[in-house]
Structures are given as C-alpha cells and as structure tokens.
Amino acid sequence: MPGAYEKYLAEVLIDEETLQKRIAELGAQISQDLAGIDDLWLVCVLKGGVMFLSDLTRHLTIPHAIDFMAVTSYGAGARESSGQVRIVMDLSTNPAGKNLLIVEDIIDSGHTLDYIVKMLRTRSPKSIRICALLNKFERREVDIKIDYVGFDIANKFVYGYGLDLDERFRNMPFIGVADLNALEEQAP
Ligand code: IMP
Ligand code: MG
Predict the structure, then answer these.
(1) Which H/E stretch holds residue 24?
(2) 8, 88, 171, 173: least CB-packed within 10 angstroms?
C-alpha cells in the first residue's frame, strides 16, 4: 500500500536494506572501538535521531545507557538551520564523568552539533564522540570531527527514518529526497 509520503518523494536515496546493513556495521564498529570503555552513554538528539538510536542501540554488544535531548535550530517551515540553536529538552542525567556518544540524524551546516558539543563540554563529561547517520559535507560551515558517519550525502533535502518534512513522515523506513515543489503546491 503506498504511503502518504509518496506524493512528496522525488527519489529513494537510501533504501531500508542498505540503511539497516550500514547501521549494523556501525554498531559492530562502535562495539569494537569502545569495548572496555566505562560508563558509555548514547545521547540521542531528538526528534530526528530517534529511529537511528533505537536501531543502533540494538546492534551494540557493549554495555551502555541512553539519554535524550531535544534542540531546535529551524524556524517553523524553514529548511535551513538558522544557526540559532536552542535546547528544548535537556538530558535527564548529569553527563559529568561519562563517556558520551552523541547520536544525530544529519549534520548539515554543523551549527547544531557545534552548539551541543560546546554546551556538553561545559558539564565535564569524560569524553564526547559523535555518530551521525547522514553527513551533508558540502554544506559544512563549522569544522566538526565526526567519529562515525553512516552515509555522506549530496546537498538535497531528505526525509524519512526520523527526519521530517514539516513534522510528518518520520516513520518512513527509508531515506527519501523530498520533492519540494510538490510540497509547496500542497501548502494550505
Ligand atoms: P545543521 O545545524 O545545519 O547542521 O542542521 C542540523 C539539523 O537540521 C539536523 O539535526 C536536522 O534536524 C536538520 N536537517 C538538516 N538537513 C535536513 C534535511 O535534509 N532533512 C531534514 N532535516 C534536516
Ligand atoms: Mg537533528
């Protein structure tokens, strides 16, 4: 049955099988690299990171805990980061002394992650690592070291698998390129 998302789909960028295979690889790699590390916390950046976190955590074979934070950097309806990042939900635990692995859906300009990392650093974690599912490297405005990347992608607006199109379609099991013309036509 076709999903409601199809109307806005220009192309499937990363299909479900490719996505899941890569996440399994990342899980194995992280489990190997961080074996022996104590007090590992995955910090999921909501809302976009939620699908990735839930699949990634099930591929980790090392002990770890999870926590969540939510930030916003887009104005309503905007498709580019404003560069003005705001925390809308903070972690439930104090990150001091912990080894953090930030789990993010996509890095675009880099402003969001730069803000998050700087903010977390002030709270004295033992270490901070970054795992991003998607990397729009062409658009980077801030230099950020990403420890784990799922896929480098071109500069196109994508949605699905946690990423939204005006808050909808996060449930798509694959990553699609949005047909923004179709979206504008539908705007009320
Ligand atoms: P940055 O601050 O420019 O790196 O933007 C990062 C945030 O913008 C991500 O965490 C996403 O929430 C959002 N974002 C960037 N590109 C896209 C996209 O193509 N689709 C959906 N959300 C995006
Ligand atoms: Mg995000």
Answers:
(1) helix 16-33
(2) 88
Average pLDDT over residues 136-142: 92
User: 2-33: string of b/e by CB count within 10 Å (b at 16+)?
Assistant: eeebeebbeeebbeeeebbeebeebbeebeee
Give exposure, 57-75, as e/b (b: 16+ Cβ within 10 Å): eebbeeebebebbbbbbee
Catalytic residue flag (residue 108): yes
Residue 1 vs residues 5, 158, 167, 177, 186: alpha-carbon distances, Å = 11, 22, 22, 20, 21
The pLDDT, as a whole number, for residue 6 is: 86
Single-letter amino acid, residue 84: Q
* Domain boundaries, position 101: 5-28+38-186
> What is the overall mean pLDDT for the chain?
93
- The Cα 107–Cα 153 span in angstroms is 10
33 falls within a domain:
no
Distance 22 CA to ligand 1 centre (A): 20
Q: Which residue has the higher pLDDT, 139 or 3?
A: 139
- How many domains does the chain divide into? 1
- 27, 131 Cβ separation under 8 angstroms: no
Catalytic residue among 15, 38, 108, 147: 108
- 136 CA to centre of ligand 1 in angstroms: 9
Q: What is the CATH number for 54?
A: 3.40.50.2020
Q: Which atom of ligand 1 is nearest to the CA of 85?
A: 2
